[in-house]
Design a protein that fits this description.
The chain has helices spanning about 5-20, 25-45, 70-80, 90-105; strands spanning about 50-55, 65-70, 85, 120-125, 140-145, 150-160. The chain contains four helices and six strands; from the N terminus they run ααββαβαβββ.
């Protein structure tokens, strides 16, 4: 018996496209809750209670982003507690930040209402002890963007391996 391959292969190709198109959405849905919980725990370790407006995993990677509202005092507590350093224009840290943004696109400029020139940026080192949670989960890095005019912040994080 001969199979009608002219009809089967195009249908299989369409099915494959449909199934793989949903991978990012499934990854985000499956891991967003953990990201929200872990980021809130990280902020609480600095004495800051954050109100998240949006959290999501970026593609099918270990990277995530959480948007939240914050006062300048809350921001200062996060920066101190997480040992974040300012990212100055033209610095080595800014070059590293640009590589991260390129490899995993989701930058503050994607958030409506923000003026990129007014942003204050801070970044951690790689795998600092401040990014290890009590449950053993750790983040590889954290980049914090803050818009002082709107009182909004964006934290980009990446889960560490192991």
């Amino acid at each position: 018996m001969r199979l009608p391959t002219k009809r089967i292969f195009p249908r299989l190709g369409i099915l494959l496209l449909v199934l793989t198109a949903g991978c990012d959405a499934l990854w985000n849905a499956a891991n967003r809750g953990s990201l929200e919980r872990d980021f809130k725990s990280l902020a609480q370790s600095c004495g800051v209670r954050v109100t998240l407006t949006r959290c999501r995993m970026l593609g099918a990677t270990r990277d995530g982003a959480c948007e939240f509202t914050a006062s300048r005092g809350q921001l200062d507590s996060l920066v101190r507690g997480l040992n974040l350093k300012p990212v100055e224009p033209g610095s080595e840290e800014e070059a590293s930040l640009k590589r991260i943004e390129f490899s995993s696109p989701y930058s503050w400029s994607a958030a409506a209402g923000s003026d990129p020139s007014s942003l204050v940026r801070f970044a951690s080192g790689r795998r600092p002890r401040e990014l290890v949670l009590k449950n053993g989960t750790a983040f590889e890095y954290l980049i914090l963007y803050y818009d002082p005019g709107l009182g909004r912040a964006l934290a980009r994080l990446s889960y560490a391996y192991g």
